[in-house]
């Protein structure tokens, strides 16, 4: 065990090449700085975060191909703005996990609170438990796979990407949807404005199959899912309204 | 913002450590509410009569003289102890008699709570200071709810701090804000509900008091509250035998619940639950909007 010279002032250690940060001893700011420093000097690719204990903003703003394991429950905005990194939370997460993610993979082993992957542009978020309300709100290209259920207003104003739910969906699913694709295996409490059930065609089976593969999910059959999408009847879809500007 | 926390014990395993377990939970919510803090603890119940939490501005107030006065004037037995600016009085008569007597003869004494087992303790200041002031870590009991306040709708005062008493052994803590509290306060005043502050949560507490007076069960009162209260809220309601949690239909204000064989704990954020025994293996989830959750001992 040797102390990493990148962060002598913090309790960051490297064990068998894995950077280890214990949040019982270091601050989240120290952790995130150490992860951001990898931008300049890519010498530690694997990281382990101990005692996260629901702290907010863990592993936010990573822009390198790092592998980060968070050993316990995280608070708000965990892995927010993630780019390229593979972040696994071995526990539950608070609001806004992987919010505005650009690329990479974020995996939550437990449940996630509301606004998971809000506004995210790319990458993959896998939630192995349930997600709270507004999962994938205003998603802009991220793919989200929830093995449990999602809460109300999920995929609100979803613009692009895929939200696949292996359990049930809460009220007002896909309200004011643009072009995001929604697949739900279980029941949907209610559909939001302009969201309708759509036919599962071959390309949708293919899209889900590929998503399950990327997410490492082997116990789901795409044919059990129902597709939902935009009816394209709202104001924004009417070309005549373009004349107003 | 504000932080709310609650801990309800399903059995007597941790009853002697209730305050000790709850202290770090309340302090963990300091970032969400550094202005004032308070808690309602349920335990040490009286079999006969009523238990009141009384407060006086003067820390050297002569509680012994007050006890003697109540004893002789109301011809009843009085046990009491002091805790900082607050004193807990156990009086062998009904709550109304004592409260009326205090209002007419000792109007400088404020009744914080009344019931069989509830004690409400709250003050302005950092949660850490308030738990120390009231020696929370030494308290025993079956359940407790608490609040750390970041004031938005009214001034930072003791009276504007939570929990708010809503009746015998009942109280309320709130994270959020109500948008129809002014109109609702006027309506409630017309039917005889009294208010001490301009605080929005006091209106919600007053509304519940009113509904319960009308004969609603706790569940019915909360169902009516969901229809009547407009705004953002997560509410935790302390009852004699447990607590209830309700979130508004949009559920913007956070809440997380953890349950094991020994307890149910709720908090605004998971951070407040990390010090509980067995939390690693607890069932942890987010309560659904517009759903009334109640845990009570039979």
UniProtKB/TrEMBL annotation, chain A:
Its EC number is 2.1.1.21. Keywords: Methyltransferase, Transferase. One of its GO terms (molecular function) is oxidoreductase activity. One of its GO terms (biological process) is methylation. Coiled coil: none annotated. InterPro entries: Glu_synth_asu_C_sf, Glu_synth_lsu_3. It comes from the Bacteria. CDD domains: GXGXG. This is N-methyl glutamate synthase subunit B. It comes from Methylophaga thiooxydans. The lineage of its organism: Bacteria, Pseudomonadati, Pseudomonadota, Gammaproteobacteria, Thiotrichales.
UniProtKB/TrEMBL annotation, chain B:
Its EC number is 2.1.1.21. One of its GO terms (biological process) is methylation. Coiled coil: none annotated. Keywords: Glutamine amidotransferase, Methyltransferase, Transferase. Transmembrane segments: none annotated. Residues 2-298 form the Glutamine amidotransferase type-2 domain. Pfam families: GATase_7. GO terms for molecular function: methylamine-glutamate N-methyltransferase activity. InterPro entries: GATase_2_dom, Ntn_hydrolases_N. It comes from the Bacteria. This is N-methyl glutamate synthase subunit A. It comes from Methylophaga thiooxydans. The lineage of its organism: Bacteria, Pseudomonadati, Pseudomonadota, Gammaproteobacteria, Thiotrichales.
